Amino acid sequence: MILKSNPIKTASGSGAIYHHLVEKTGDNERIHVWKGRRQDIEDCIADATAFGRVNAVQHFQLSSREKLTTEQFADCITMLAQEFGFKASDVALAVIHTKTRHDNEADNRHCHILVRTTNPETGKVLDVSHRYERQEKVARLFELKHGLALTKGRHNLAVYHAVPEEHRERLQVLCEGALPNSVLSDPQSKRSQRQGARPFDIKYVLRDLYAGSTDWQAFQSAISSQGWSLMAGDKKPNVVLLKDEHGVIVGSLSRLLGVRKSEFSAFVLGHETPEQSAIRQGGREDIASPGPRDTSRDPTGKGETPVDPSAVEDGTPSPDPRNSSEDSVSTTLEPASGRKISGPVLRTGAITRSVAGTGTISASSPKTRASITKGMTQSEVQAVIDFNEAQAEKEQQLRDHLHGQKRFADLLTELVESFQSRWSHLPAEPHPDPKSRDTAYIRAGHEKRLTGVRQNWLDAESRVTLWTPWHRAEARKARAVFDEALETLGYHRHDIGKLDMSDDSNFSYAMKWIADWIVRSREHKHRDWMNLHEVKDYLKEKQALKEVLAYLADTQDGEVMQIACINLLSAKARVSTLRQRADRGAMETHDVQSGTGGGDRTRNASHTPSPTRPTSASPRPSLSGIMGIV
C-alpha cells in the first residue's frame, strides 16, 4: 500500500484538478466517481478564499500491489481521517481510477480523494505536518490489518516507533538495509510524460539491460540497441541522463536504475567489486529507512535501532572482531586444583556470550568491566560474571532513562508545536508587551530619543549672533535632525507638532500628549482583539498549556501528557485535581507529624470542627475531614 498526498492551491481553482480526476478519460480505462461533485470543490475553495488560506484541499492518492475491494479503500480513508483529523463530510471528492499498471502485476485500481483543509466556520487549517511519515504509518497499519505484504518506505524507523508495541516485531525487518531510491519525483514524472516519454516502461527494460551487462561498454551498446542515447546534465555535468528514441529526456540514469551514485560510478569506471557485481546481476539487497522523525498523532523520538529478536533469543550474535584484547581476554580457564571449569555464560543485557576455554569476553566499556584471567577459581569467575552483569544492567538503565527523557522532551516540543499550529490562523496579538501600552514607558522612550537632538539644536541656535552668522547653517542642520526625529515618532501628524519646541513647557506637554494618544490607540486595538470569541478560547488554552507544561516539567506524568495531546483544558483540570490531592496529602502528613493525628484524633473526632467551615479555634481541617473530602 502506497499513500501520497499534495496540497491543491486556492488560486488554481477547481477546473484543473476536477478535469484530472473526473474528465481525463484518455489516461484511465474507467473512472468511477464515488462521492462528490465539482461544486463541493468550489465550496472548499470559497472557504479557503474567505479566510485567506493558500491551500484549499489536500489531494490523497491510495494504491496497492494487491487487489483491494471498495470496502478496503473505504477503511483506508477512515484510517487517514483518524490520523489527520478530518471527517467524512470533509471529503469533497472521491474517485476510483482503473488503468493497467506498468508492471502488469499491481492492482489496476487506485483511489483519489480531495479533503477540505479549511474549516468553514472557524477557519482552522487541517494539520498535515510530517505527512510523509504519517502516511507511511497509516499504510503499514493498513497492511498489517488486512494481511497485505509490507512495503518498504523512506521513514520506516519513524513508523516503527509510532505503531503499537505488538506490531513492531513485524515491522522490524523494514528498518534494515539501505534507503530506497525513487525513479523520478512526481513533478519529473509528470513533466517527462507530458513531453511524450515513457519513464516507467523504460525503467523495467533498462534494469534488465543493466543486470545483463558485464561492463559499462556493454551497457552502452545495449542502450544504443534500443534507440536510446546518453547525455551529460546541463546543470550537473557529472549526472548521466537518458534520452529515449524520440530524443526526450527520461531522467537520471542512476535514478532509473535505482542505484546509488557511488555504485553507478564504480560500474562506469570499472571499479566494481565482485560483491557489487553479484548484487547488480542477481538482484538488489533489502532497502530500509533513514533516522526517525515525529509523527503527529503518535509522535516518535529518535529512538534506537530495533534489536533483532532472533539474535536476542538464541543468544548467539555474531562476534565483533573490533573488540581488542584490552577488554576481551582470551584464556584457557584452569583453576589451581587442575580441574577444568566448564564454560560459564556471560549475560550482558539481553545478549548472552560464551566464556568457554578459548572464547573471548566482549565488554562494551573496559572502564566498568572486570576481566577473567588465568588461575581464577570457579567462584571468582562467577563473581566477575555477576559484576559485569550488574554493570551492564546499570548502563542499560541509564540509557533507558536518558532515552526516556529525550522522548519526553520531544513530546513536550510537539505539544507546543501542535498548539501553535492549531491557532496559527488567529491574527497576531497587537502590542502584546504591556510596556508598549504604558504611558510612562512610552514617554521615557521619547525623552531619550528627543532630548539630546533638541539640546543640540538649542545649543546651535544660541551660537548664532549678528557677529557669528556662519553658525546659522549649523543651527539649520541641527533643527533638521530634530524635526526628522519628531516626524519619525509621529508628531507631525498632529497639531501638537506645531508648538514651539524650543519652549521647555511646550516640549514636555507635547511628549505627554503624544504618549497618551499612542496608548489610547494601542489599548483600543488590544481590547478589540481580546474581545474576539476565538481569542478568548485561545487564551484559555494558552493558560492551560502553561500550567500543564509546568506540571509535566516537574513530574513527567505520562497520563497527563496523553490527556494533553487530546485536550489541553481536560489536562489542566486533571493537573488541578492532582495538585489538590498532593496538597491535601502534604497537609495530612503535617497534621500527623505535629501530633494532631492518631488515637487522639479518633478520640476527639466528635469535637473537631467541620473542615468546610473552619473557625478561629481550628484554622486547619482535621485528618478525618480531609479523608472525607478525598
Task: Give the helices and strands, then pairings.
Blueprint (H helix, E strand, L loop, with lengths): L1 E8 L5 H9 L6 E7 L1 H13 L4 E9 L6 H15 L6 E8 L10 E8 L14 H16 L9 H7 L5 H4 L14 H9 L4 H14 L3 H10 L3 E4 L7 E4 L5 E4 H5 L3 H9 L4 H9 L26 H6 L30 E4 L2 E4 L23 H45 L16 H24 L8 H18 L15 H27 L2 H23 L2 H9 L1 H26 L4 H6 L19 H7 L1
Antiparallel strand pairs: 1-3, 2-4, 3-5, 4-5, 6-7, 7-8, 9-10
Structure overview:
By secondary structure, this protein is α+β, with helices and mostly antiparallel strands. Among the domains are: 2-128, no CATH class; 186-282, no CATH class; 309-397, no CATH class; 434-530, no CATH class. The chain contains 22 helices and 10 strands. It has a 5-stranded antiparallel β-sheet, sandwiched between helices. Strands 6-7-8 form a 3-stranded antiparallel β-sheet. Strand 9 and strand 10 form a beta hairpin. The longest helix has 45 residues, at 378-422. The protein starts with a strand and ends with a helix.
